[in-house]
Amino acid sequence: MSWLSCCVALSTVLLFITADGALEGYGDNTYVTLTWDTVVDDQYCEPYSWKDYELVVDEEHSHYNIIFEVFDRNQAVEGYKIDGLSIWLFEDTIPTDRESAFYQKFSIDGILSFAVNSYDAKQKTYWLGVQCSHERSEFQVLATYVKSELSNDGHSTHGIVCPGEWIYHHFIPADRLHPQLVAALRKASRGD
Predict the structure, then answer these.
(1) Does residue 124 lie within any of the structural domains?
(2) Is 175 within the bounds of a domain?
């Protein structure tokens, strides 16, 4: 590849990046804004392409455990491999090289998931990138949250946790003003 073709390819990519560095989308790579507890259905991506999802976390939700789930609808197809989709999590912007320390390349029972625990969650924009591998894939996307503060009134709290991830809970005793950590739950393996 000549120097000129490298420059042309690079400038083509940069045309689709906003001033703050966020990916606006191009071709089939437009983004969808997620809303809490709403399943985004009928999603798909072509081989080796990306589909991006934006979740803006406000002040209220920045104190919760945040869960992203992608349900791979192709899992029911005979001969389909568990690595048909991969998911990547980015904070604030999607870098042009799409490198992230947070990714998952294999599904468990057709679900790929990430958790951002309440300790790490911030008021910011999170981007979930879904990438198809060798064939077209259909999927659903969900962003949900699990409250981290437990109530003192004896009511139970229901939540979910992703395989290999942590979520945190705390409560404020009636006689204290400081939160106390009471549980850090981890799902060790499938079926737990």
Answers:
(1) yes
(2) no
